[in-house]
Design a protein that fits this description.
By secondary structure, this protein is α/β, with parallel strands linked by helices. Helix content is about 40%, strand content about 15%.
Length: about 240
């Protein structure tokens, strides 16, 4: 496969109006399934509120006295009506408030997203639309017809720019469509959606984002060592750079 593939850009009527490049470093990488699984599990775990709670035997209502005498009743001996085996007693090993969040490095999250997008790109499931807005008013009917013509699946993820309110209003009432801004795109939403539809502006912003990140990492790698340098050596280095 070539280093950079091209993808047609369609207008709201489904006609080709241009093309965009699919960078290989984002849309043609190896899909690491165990990595994606770990990232998705961590993301779903972080979404849990963790507010569930059950009462222990020391927290339920009830007197602390002995329910009945130890001997002579013919019943099993009991020490408290708040014991777990008693009706209305405390719960043993029940859930209590906790934090389910898992630590996931940012590079793992980015790699999982690239792997998921690459899988959709290899299957021809990524589409770029020039604009989802028709005129100056939202038109859900037009967008439904457009998505039916380009997306063969039921569940579609639409990626927009944050300030594209007109397109957002056009697709927000479609039950099978999920809408996200480009800077919140994640592996889980890509995996649960069969087709990914970008607007041209959102696609350009998303593609330029990882490129800026790579350049920043290159600048970090090129920084000098943090070891202490003598003033004479620092001056010599400065002269060499200026020369």
């Amino acid at each position: 496969m070539a280093e950079t593939n091209t993808l047609d850009v369609l207008d709201s009527t489904g006609k080709k109006v241009g093309a965009v490049d699919l960078p290989a470093e984002t849309f043609d990488v190896q899909t690491n399934i165990p990595l994606i699984h770990q990232v998705v599990v961590a993301q779903r775990a972080a979404a849990r509120q963790g507010t569930h709670n059950t009462l222990r035997r020391g927290e339920v209502s009830g007197a602390g006295r002995k329910p009945f005498k130890q001997k002579g009743t013919g019943r099993a001996r009991q020490g408290s009506i708040r014991a777990p085996q008693m009706t209305g007693g405390g719960i043993v090993h029940g859930p209590h408030p906790r934090d389910y969040a898992q630590r996931t490095p940012k590079k793992m999250i980015a790699a999982a997203l690239r792997g998921a997008l690459s899988d959709r790109a290899r299957g021809g499931r990524i589409h770029v639309i020039d604009s989802l807005s028709v005129g100056e008013t939202p038109s859900t009917k037009t967008i439904v017809a457009l998505l039916e013509s380009i997306a063969t699946s039921k569940h579609v993820l639409v990626v927009l720019e944050r300030d594209d309110l007109l397109s957002q209003k056009s697709v927000r009432n479609i039950p099978t469509v999920h809408v996200l801004p480009w800077d919140q795109l994640n592996a889980y939403d890509v995996l649960v959606s069969d087709d990914i539809v970008f607007t041209k502006g959102a696609f350009d912003a998303f593609v330029s984002g990882p490129a800026r990140q790579v350049k920043a990492e290159e600048r970090d790698d090129a920084t000098v060592s943090k070891k202490r340098v003598s003033p004479e050596r620092a001056a010599a280095n400065k002269e060499e750079v200026s020369a």
